[in-house]
Design goal:
Structural class: mainly alpha
Shape: elongated
Number of helices: 4
Strand content: under 5%
Order of helices and strands: HHHH
Length: 205
């Protein structure tokens, strides 16, 4: 991950361009300073639409409820970041590191997480409609009751990920091995594609 200045990167010009640049300047001062500013401005709307954070270190950043639609976070470091209830629809997060990140309630529609690391991330109540999780590391992630219907899951690592109650009905590329690798509370079984089965009770002991 690089630490190059966020403000050295291009922003798409839109009606909130000046607002975007102001927030990018705050982030450019460092995550600690930016988070302190957010605590003092809890009611401020954070608009970073189409912002380019490619390869940027944003570990621990507070982007809760931010509008990050269409943002470029490829190869970015978002370890422990709070992105809960944020709008990341259409964002690019391929090969990003979101270990231990909080994304609960986030809008992740049409978002590309190809090859991303989401180990131990909180993904409860997110909307993954149309998203790509191909090759993503989901070890230990919280996916309970999440809708993964139609999401691309080829080669995704579900080791100990909690998929209890999740909807995987039309998930693409899901295999029996992935199901067996995941954690499932059999009292709240996930919905699986035809041809795939829940592990037997003795397999979970």
């Amino acid at each position: 991950m690089t630490n190059e200045k966020v403000t050295d990167k291009p922003l798409r010009n839109d009606e909130r361009g000046m607002e975007n640049r102001a927030y990018l300047l705050l982030i450019n001062d460092g995550v600690t300073a930016f988070n302190a500013w957010r605590k003092q401005n809890l009611t401020a709307e954070l608009g970073l639409i189409h912002a380019n954070f490619k390869g940027t270190n944003l570990s621990g950043v507070n982007l809760k409820e931010a509008d990050l639609k269409g943002g470029d976070f490829r190869n970015a470091d978002l370890i422990g970041a709070d992105i809960s209830d944020a709008n990341l629809s259409g964002a690019k997060l391929s090969d990003a590191n979101l270990t231990d990140a909080l994304l609960r309630g986030a809008n992740l529609r049409n978002t590309n997480f190809g090859g991303a690391t989401l180990s131990n991330a909180d993904l409860r109540e997110v909307d993954f409609t149309g998203s790509n999780l191909r090759g993503a590391n989901l070890k230990g992630a919280k996916l309970r009751d999440v809708n993964l219907d139609g999401v691309a899951l080829w080669a995704a690592d579900f080791g100990d990920a909690d998929i209890s109650g999740a909807d995987l009905t039309n998930a693409l590329g899901l295999t029996q091995d992935q199901i067996h690798a995941a954690y499932i509370n059999l009292g709240f079984p996930p919905k699986l594609p035809k041809g795939l089965n829940l592990p037997k009770l003795e397999d979970t002991l």
